[in-house]
Amino acid sequence: MPGIINDLTVAGTLFLRANARKLLSKSDPEPDLEKYRSGMQSLLDQAPAGLIREYEWLDIPGNRPPWVASGIDLQAGDQVSCFMAGRVFASKPLDIWLSLGLQVWYKVGAGEIFRGTDNSHSFSAQENGALQFGNYFPNDWQNLQGERQQDDKVYKNSSGMSRILVIRWHKPAVECLRKMVGLGDFDGHLQSEIDRIDMGDTTPQGWSYLWNIGRSNIFRKQPLETTDDCIHCQTQGDTGILQKDVDTVLDQHSEISWKWCVDELPSNLREDTVPSHDYMSIAVEFDNGRDITYYWSSTLPVGTGYDCPLPNWQGKEYHVVIRSGKEGLGEWKDERRNLFDDYKQYMGEPPARIVRVWLIANSAFQRGKGDCKYSDIVLHNKQSLKVL
Question: Does domain 31-199 fall into CATH 1.10.1040.10?
Answer without folding.
Answer: no
